[in-house]
Design goal:
This protein has 2 domains: about 70 residues, Arc Repressor Mutant, subunit A (Orthogonal Bundle); about 160 residues, Up-down Bundle (Four Helix Bundle (Hemerythrin (Met), subunit A)), CATH 1.20.120. The N and C termini lie far apart (about 60 Å). A hairpin with a 5-residue loop joins strand 1 and strand 2. It is built from 10 helices and 2 strands. The protein has a two-stranded antiparallel sheet. Helix 5 packs antiparallel against helix 10 and helix 9 packs antiparallel against helix 10. The chain is mainly α.
């Protein structure tokens, strides 16, 4: 007879609380009863409740505050919160060298080229405005750090312009990790000028609703960036003397 695994008490409590959150029976920002009350309602120990709350906290469904008015409050996942969580973990994964640069670049191409096409297909004036707002008029007069902030903002705006939150969640962490490595390398004005020109062309293609042009431009843009990423990746992993 196969052994049937019985879930631990804290897992069952976490599952029930999660279901109440997802179904809306417990609302965002609502404060949960204290541990003693929850333990009594679920018929378990306070230690079991505490472990269940810890599980929900790691899943970003709870935030805990201390002091007057403190307690456990319900939160719901957002695109930015999930992206930040994934970025931190993917960054750690890349540092252990379990994921290669080729894998990052391959996935980015698989995500951002179709995203550019979809953004053009669904052309929305607000998203076009956001794209253009992330392109500096005089990039070479800006500090390098500011240029990178805008570059990231452009790509974030592009994936958001797809209208598909899951694409944004998947793409933003990959771009964030790659840009962090690139930002640590030395790049001249020629690089930033080319980036600016590419972004302008992409914004024009999205604004015109030209899917083919947007997809082709993104593909060329990523091909231009590849040797820069390869150089930055090697430098980041060069043993310190």
């Amino acid at each position: 007879m196969p052994v049937r695994r019985i879930r631990k008490a804290y897992e069952q409590v976490a599952d029930q609380l999660r279901e109440l959150i997802v179904t809306g029976e417990i609302l965002p920002a609502q404060r949960l009863p204290n541990e003693a009350t929850l333990a009594r309602e679920f018929g378990v120990s306070r230690a079991t409740v505490r472990e269940a709350l810890r599980v929900l906290s790691t899943q970003n469904l709870l935030r805990t505050t201390k002091g007057t008015g403190g307690g456990s409050y319900i939160t719901l996942p957002t695109v930015d919160r999930i992206s930040d969580y994934l970025s931190a973990n993917i960054s750690l994964l890349s540092a252990t060298e379990n994921v290669s640069l080729d894998e990052f670049l391959e996935l980015r191409e698989m995500l951002e080229v179709p995203a550019a096409r979809l953004a053009a297909r669904r052309r929305d004036p607000t998203h076009v405005h956001d794209l253009r707002a992330a392109i500096p008029e005089s990039p070479l007069r800006m500090a390098t750090e500011d240029q990178f902030v805008l570059n990231r903002g452009f790509h974030s705006a592009l994936v958001l312009a797809t209208g598909n939150a899951l694409i944004a969640i998947a793409a933003q962490p990959i771009f964030s990790v790659l840009q962090t490595n690139l930002q640590r390398s030395t790049l001249g004005n020629k690089f930033h000028k080319r980036i600016n020109e590419d972004h302008l062309a992409l914004a024009d293609a999205v604004d015109a609703g030209d899917e083919d042009a947007a997809g082709g431009l993104m593909l060329d843009h990523l091909a231009f960036l590849r040797p820069m990423y390869e150089k930055a990746w090697r430098q980041a992993r060069r043993p310190a003397r």
